[in-house]
Amino acid sequence: CPNRQEIQVTLKQVQKLLSAHEASCLQSLRTCPKLDEPINGRKLGKSHRVGHEVHFLCDPGYEIVGSESRVCQESLTWTGQQPTCRGLHFNECASSPCLNGGTCVDELNQFSCVCAKGWAGETCQNECELFHNGPAGKLCLHKCVNTPGGYRCSCPAGYNVTRDGRSCKDIDECATRQNNCTNDQMCVNTYGGFQCVRVDCPKIPHATYVKTSPMRCERNPCPLDNKACSQTPTSFSYHHLAVVSNLSAPRVMFRVSALRQLGDTLRFTLLGGRQARHHFTVQRSDRQTGQLMLVNPVQGPTALEAEVEMSELERRVQLGRYITKITMFVSQYEF
């Protein structure tokens, strides 16, 4: 059996162990005041008991001011100071976002513009740009010109601004005599301009032609024994069309008809080169009418020519050929 001295030593050791365990239990029940998360930041660690540590982090774009970590002390107080998160400062005006003489005011993570007189908007932008980039669509048919505090629409040469202030109306230079066509020329009004045209009867071997109207030439009578003359076109007629650029297709551009028919058959044919055939075709609309069809849009400015031949036959024998020449003046603009 252990002697008395050994028993006393053992009891003292047990007493120390119990005291330490009791102190640990008491310490675990003691807590420091609750710490709040900083605005624009967060706190790591939920325990506020004595001896425990809490850490703090800031959101991107912010820096910590104060203690990054705090420890709960025996005095039930925290070490360090309560941290805050301060925004990192960028010069928001460095890119000169304010337009048209506006003054930029740098603020925390943002900016504001003090606009010059006559300007408004978030960045003092002009009315034309604001409307063009917005959901409402195009403000002017052709061009928007910004003015202090507003805007105005302008039109290209050959057009006037309409009463609504937005659209463009073609000026008829022929009707208003704003052209330089000579007496032997005919003025043809086009969209945005005019053309001076002169019609001369064609010179064809074996036949002669005479002008019977400003836009028509007819063949003089052929001698009875001159077969080559009878095979030449009976007449030439000339027509001029004015259209806008990129006109939608297909669509009928011109119709050729016979006022009276002597034979039993009329045949309509498109003459001309590759360019004419790329943009046009000829279709029969009824027994006595053929129509010139635009099959592909045309980008202006340009002029296209097409020839439609109407042949009159009787039992497959040609009685006459009638040539219609159409010149189409295409504008630079789509209005």
From TrEMBL:
Residues 89-125 form the EGF-like domain. The keyword Transmembrane helix does not apply. It comes from the Eukaryota. Keywords: Calcium, Cell adhesion, Disulfide bond, EGF-like domain, Extracellular matrix, Glycoprotein, Repeat, Secreted, Signal, Sushi. It is found in: Secreted, Extracellular space, Extracellular matrix. Pfam families: cEGF (PF12662), EGF (PF00008), Fibulin_C (PF22914), Sushi (PF00084). Disulfide bonds join 58-85, 115-124. GO terms for biological process: cell adhesion. Residues 30-87 form the Sushi domain. GO terms for molecular function: calcium ion binding. PROSITE patterns: ASX_HYDROXYL (PS00010), EGF_1 (PS00022), EGF_3 (PS50026), EGF_CA (PS01187), SUSHI (PS50923). Belongs to the fibulin family. This is Fibulin 7.
